[in-house]
Amino acid sequence: MSDIVLVELGVGDVDRLREIRLRALLDAPEAFASTYARERDFSPEQWAERLAAPESRWLVATDGTADLGLVCAREEEGGVHLLAMWVAPEARGRRVGSLLVDEVIAGARAAGAEEVRLWCVDSNEAALALYRRKGFTPTGRTMGLPSKPDVGESQYALSLLFRAARAEDVPAIVAMLADDPLGARREGDPADERYLKAFARIDANPYDELIVAEVGGKVVGTMQLTYLAGLSRLGAERCLIEAVRVASSCRGQGLGRKMIQWAVDRARARGCAVVQLTSDKTRTDAHRFYDSLGFAASHEGYKLALS
Predict the structure, then answer these.
(1) What's the confidence (pLDDT) of residue 1?
(2) pLDDT at 180
(3) Are 62 and 5 in contact (CB under 8 A)?
(4) Which of 70, 190, 201, 267 makes an SS bond possible with 171, Cβ 3.0 to 4.6 Å?
(5) CB count, 10 Å around CB of 306?
(6) What is the DSSP code (8-state) at residue 206?
(7) So what CATH class is 5-159?
(8) Is 5-159's fold the same as 162-292's?
(9) What pairs with residue 83 in β-bridges?
């Protein structure tokens, strides 16, 4: 793979972009929203406009003798859209696609984006396998391919703000759990081995997700998502959100809202019928927060302490 390098195209690379883009459209006509017939008639000015757009980066993978891959990273509100992804047939299996995706993700992080999004044709198993390996998950949004509406495609996203917790995150998570009057009474030393044992159980359970928010390399938020099977609602799955915390240094900045919206989107994409949570009766600010997000206080909750 050392012979493959990535080059960012500039305004003087009109012919280079046109050649590889048209080759991609010819090679994989059902992979793109546009068509060869449409773009072959673009004027040099239209290709130059693509390269000159300040919100877009066009990257080519090359071995020094031929261009072997293409991707565009376009900045949009709240994130970066990965599009126009293509790898030449003769370069497949050489991790060209992996290099291109990694560079888009790295560029998005450097720009402060919170998410990378893309659309992929449902039948493109090779591309889907690559995106899954990189951490992309379905958002639940689907549509017909604009160039061929009978071909289905789905949207995938990679959060650059939220990720699965790791064992080394446990002390920071426990510190956030303890950072309020209720938590201060029930939490202990973050180094207590019982926390790591609990983390190991959560991490091993495919129906549990312990999520953290990371900003600037620091863990500043956390929540746990549990997916519950049940017979009610025709056997529908539910998503339970628990232990939602935001570090005191980040409160009042909208992070909690982003966390819950991300969790709801994740549950919807998974096919859950309901998202539910509980909040202590003394947390009146939290109640107003959940009300503003569309949650309804529809049930009375009961607990029985066993120790």
Answers:
(1) 46
(2) 87
(3) yes
(4) 190
(5) 4
(6) T
(7) alpha beta
(8) yes
(9) 72
Amino acid identity of residue 95, one-letter, is R
Long-range CB contacts (< 8 A, 24+ apart) of 245-251?
Answer: 245/173, 245/176, 245/177, 245/179, 245/183, 245/221, 246/176, 246/213, 246/220, 246/221, 247/176, 247/179, 247/218, 247/219, 247/220, 247/221, 248/179, 249/220, 250/215, 250/220, 250/221
Kindly compute the dihedral angle of the four CA atoms of residues 298, 252, 256, 276, in this order, to the nearest 10 degrees: -10
Residue count of the chain, please give it: 307
pTM for the full predicted model: 0.83
How does DSSP classify residue 161? S
Within 28-114, where are the H helices? 36-39, 44-52, 96-110
User: Looking at domain 162-292, what is its CATH homologous superfamily?
Assistant: Gcn5-related N-acetyltransferase (GNAT) (3.40.630.30)
Would you say 73 and 14 are in contact if contact means Cβ atoms under 8 Å apart?
A: no
Q: How far apart are CA 61 and CA 48, in angstroms?
A: 19
CB neighbours of residue 192 within 10 Å: 13
Cα distance between residue 256 and residue 221, in whole Å? 8
Please report, as a single letter, which amino acid is at residue 258. K
Under-50 pLDDT residues of the chain: 1
Query: For tokens 């992929």, what's the residue?
Result: 120
Residue 306 has what pLDDT? 94
Contacts of 248 (CB under 8 A, 6+ apart): 179
User: Hey, where are the domains in the chain?
Assistant: 5-159, 162-292
